[in-house]
Amino acid sequence: MSHTILQVQELVKRFGGLVATDHCNLEIRTGEIHALIGPNGAGKTTLLAQLCGELAPDSGRILFEGRDITRLPIHKRVSAGIVRSFQITTLLPRLTVRENLALAVQARTGHSFDFLGTVADESDLDEGAEDAARRVGLIDVMEQIVGTLSHGKQRALELGMALACKPRLLLLDEPMAGTDPEESKRMGELIHSLREDHTLILVEHDMDAVFRLADRVSVLVAGAVIASGTPEQIRNDPQVISAYLGDDESAETEAVQ
């Protein structure tokens, strides 16, 4: 049985009078793809921001491998193995794929260099960059300027930069947003392949992809998890159907079938 790698306990985050995370509880098991789904405004991105250290919760705890990381800053969470990718672009479009990946390796290792132009010349950085590029299928475009890549390849590069940080827990925020069907298919295949070596939390609006990829799914509504289970359990949970869809049977079919 997989053990628990991440626990969220009674997490609360308020923005003035708005409760974005409302006594949220969540458990992530090692080696799984765990999807977070919910209506717009449910608090999914706010929860991810707290998990990676971008936002500090008002109360509650976050445990990673049993260690309380609730107040740990972002860079120390990255060193511990928690890395977030997607939704907000982090690419440097005027640099090459190689240089972007080398910078991600540098961020993980703390390797020093005098100026940006020397980054990709450092052998250890370059080796890490090439390893990440192979993993996401970009080894043939290492010297291409990032701004000239297709949207799908830029998404793959974002994932490659996250992988260059050697995460144990990878947080993916809408990795298929804006991709065409073929790019979405390739991204899904890539995400599925990552579960061999990583634990993943996936926030994604493409329900077909969610139910195809996820081992377990948690449903977030108004900042709280109302259900967790296998995709099949979530498909058939009356509380989930009601929270998402009310009495609209046609919408129900579209969202969960």
Automatic annotation (TrEMBL):
Keyword annotations of the record: ATP-binding, Cell membrane, Membrane, Nucleotide-binding, Transport
Molecular functions per Gene Ontology: ATP binding; ATP hydrolysis activity
Any Pfam family hit: BCA_ABC_TP_C
PROSITE patterns to which the protein is assigned, alphabetical: ABC_TRANSPORTER_2 (PS50893)
InterPro entries xrefs: AAA+_ATPase, ABC_AA/LPS_Transport, ABC_transporter-like_ATP-bd, BCA_ABC_TP_C, P-loop_NTPase
Domain ABC transporter: 6-247
Cellular-component GO terms for this entry: plasma membrane
Lineage: superkingdom: Bacteria
Gene3D superfamilies hit by this protein: P-loop containing nucleotide triphosphate hydrolases (3.40.50.300)
Name of the protein in question: ABC transporter ATP-binding protein
Natural source organism: Parazoarcus communis
